[in-house]
Amino acid sequence: MKIVVIGADQGLGEKLCGIIRQKGQQAAAGMYRIENAKNSGAEDGHLLLLTDVTDPESLQRAADVIRYSWGTADAVVDVAGVLTDGDRTHNLMDIDLQDVRTELEVNAIGVLSAFRAFYPVLNKNGRFVAVTSEGGSFSNKGDMFPSYGISKTAANKIVQILRETVKDVEILAVHPGRMNTEMGRTTAEIEPEEAAEGIYRIVAGETRLREGLWFIDYKGCEMPL
């Protein structure tokens, strides 16, 4: 398989690239900054891409590299995400609106931008996976990280609408669990390696999904909307 990972600079994306290589498959590691590859180890054996999800031209150039290097990709996984410092420490009445805009641009609009750019180079019947969050579920009534939850709810809705619009690839929203990463350390329950392994199994078709499911966790279980 040939798999593009957007947001491979660190954490889940970095681990996912490593697992793809361990499985004997090919990974294209999409970086917000290419220099991050030296720190993350993602440059080791991977095709490197510059993928800033807030910059559609960056994504288009990356898709062009895939077309030139591979022809097509079997799957694209968008792991890119942000949780601002302001969202960690403020409620929705106090948070700076720029933090809200930043999270919406990366976590939600970024999903749409990534899909638009890479859809033309996805194999028919390929998979596009947006890593979202349980925070994007209306059944999650907690007020922790409110702006993050808003952005992930929007991302889930984008996935739902894309599934109705585009029928020749599978489009999924996946909750990766509460991982021990820079973003989620305070609420961590699992290591990113476990989530990465689960997402790989979904992408590779090793985890069988019930027909019609599209918002799932990293084990392939249905998530509440």
Strand content: 15-25%
Adjacency order of strands in the biggest sheet: 3-2-1-4-5-6-7
> What class, by secondary structure content?
alpha/beta
The mean pLDDT is 92
Number of domains: 1
In the predicted model, the low-confidence regions spanning at least 5 consecutive residues are: none
Question: What's the CATH first level?
Answer: Alpha Beta
Assigned CATH architecture? 3-Layer(aba) Sandwich
Structure summary, number of beta strands: 7
Order of helices and strands: EHEHEHEHHEHEHE
Radius of gyration: 16 Å
Distance between the termini: 31 Å
Walk me through this protein's architecture.
- By secondary structure, the chain is an alpha/beta fold.
- It has a single domain (2-217), classed as Rossmann fold (3-Layer(aba) Sandwich).
- 40% of the residues lie in helices and 18% in strands.
- The chain contains seven helices and seven strands; from the N terminus they run E-H-E-H-E-H-E-H-H-E-H-E-H-E.
- The chain has a seven-stranded parallel sheet with strand order 3-2-1-4-5-6-7, with helices on both faces.
- Helix 1 crosses helix 7 and helix 3 (56-69) runs parallel beside helix 5.
- The longest helix is centred in the middle third of the chain and has 22 residues, at 97-118.
- The protein starts with a strand and ends in an 8-residue tail after the last strand.
